[in-house]
Amino acid sequence: MLSTEDDILRAAEGWRREGRAVALATVIETWGSAPRPVGSHLVIDGDSRFLGSVSGGCVEGEVITEALDVIEDGRPRTLEFGVADETAWRAGLSCGGRIRVFVERID
């Protein structure tokens, strides 16, 4: 069962209360076939546990890796994944599109 956005945000808050280091990844822009809408979240703790999704599994591994760096150094990041322009759609690529994800540490 997929978690709701409220479940994900409650988990982030609960993990912080437990003293875990936490980062929150949020979809801030999409174009094309991005499987998650703007505002979707992925919460990650310092032990690589996570809840939620920013791409339906396409880029979560990379986002989690970056989130662990954000937890460590405290510097937020904006990540971008996907094609550079509309040519992917003209060529009929099934995985075309782009997603931008903002990752921040939750203190």
Automatic annotation (TrEMBL):
Pfam families: XdhC_CoxI. Residues 15-82 form the XdhC- CoxI domain. InterPro entries: MoCofactor_Util/Proc (IPR052698), XdhC_CoxI (IPR003777). PANTHER family: ALDEHYDE OXIDOREDUCTASE MOLYBDENUM COFACTOR ASSEMBLY PROTEIN, MOLYBDENUM COFACTOR INSERTION CHAPERONE PAOD. This is XdhC- CoxI domain-containing protein. It comes from Methylorubrum populi (strain ATCC BAA-705 / NCIMB 13946 / BJ001).
